[in-house]
Amino acid sequence: MIIYYLIEWISIIMLSPIMLERSHILVNNLTRYMDANGFQQRQLANLAGISPTTLNNWLRSYSYPEPENLLKLAVALHCEVPDLTETESYQDERKRYLTIGQAALLNAYQTDREFQKVCDISLRLYREKRLSAYVSKLQEYVESYDSETNEKK
H-helix or E-strand containing 35? Predict the structure, then answer.
């Protein structure tokens, strides 16, 4: 048992202060997302395809995951990698800014009643997990417009 604690102590000392800070941010965010999704460590490890021991080491700040494992965790937790690796204040700041595509969609939604209807129907179908209906409704909408004039046929 003494050897276990000695190894634990050495592994913590060996992490640089920057890595230790990054590790603490990861632990806080992982814990928050695990709670939000109702996951235990073993469940998350199975969903992400990693060993429970490895996940436990990350949650104890003994080691830090490689980028491909961060991606596996993000997919399992239904979030993005920066949601796990950045502080909440930085995440909020990043999310304030819309991409050009998001801004264009928002503008179209606010100004085009037909687009608004299709978006609302598509969102409802998506939330109801009726993805085939979602895709067909979107195709129907796209086919109803003339691509050259950008007007409804």
Answer: helix 17-37
pLDDT in tens, 89-106: 665 665 555 566 666 777
With tokens 């606010």, the residue in question is 110
Going from the C-alpha of 112 to that of each of 43, 105, 109, the distances in angstroms are: 44, 10, 6
Closest listed residue to residue 76, CA positions, set 109, 46, 108, 98: 46
pLDDT in tens, 25-81: 999 999 988 988 889 999 999 999 999 999 999 999 888 898 899 999 988 988 888
Query: CA-CA distance, 76 to 14, in Å (whole number)?
Result: 29
Cβ burial of 44 (10 Å; 0-12, 13-18, 19+) is buried
pTM of the model: 0.52
- The torsion of the CA quartet 119, 121, 125, 127, rounded to 10 degrees, works out to 60
Query: What type of residue is 76?
Result: A
Domains and CATH numbers, the chain: 2-95 (1.10.260.40), 100-152 (no CATH)
